[in-house]
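Hey, quick one: can you model this chain's 3D structure?
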Amino acid sequence: MIPDTVIYVMTAAVVVSAVAIVVQLLILLGMYRSARGLQEQVTAFIPKAESLVATAQSTLEQSRTQISDITTKANDILDKTRVQVGRADEILSDATARARVQMDRLELVFDDTVGRLHETVAIFHNGILRPLKEVNGIFAGIRAALGHLSRSGRPTVAQATQDDEMFI
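Sure thing. Here's the predicted structure for all 168 residues.
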């Protein structure tokens, strides 16, 4: 019986192998059909993708030229700005230097004016006020002399007290 069992087992194994091969064949047929469907879809998509790629390339080329133009213009603007800033700096430096010179001149004029004002005050003081004070002193002396001469005798007690208080 052993040989019959082996034959049955081998037959079962061959049947199982045959079924597995048939299943594999069916799976391969399904994969083939799916690949054909996918190939048809890809074939239909390829012209659209090619037009999209062509559009993208033309857009990229236009963008490159526009970016190049913008970069060139921006560099020109930056160069002109640098030149203008340099000019403005020169003008500002020149104006600052001129303002310093004018301030120095103004200070000299102011010092000269103050010196002349001091000289004028000194001349006024020496020429007018000093003689007026001297004349006023002379008149005060004359007044005191006349007051002393016009007084009769001795001062009163009220005058003496007031003189003493003023002295203290």
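One thing worth noting: The CA atoms of residues 28 and 54 lie 37 Å apart.
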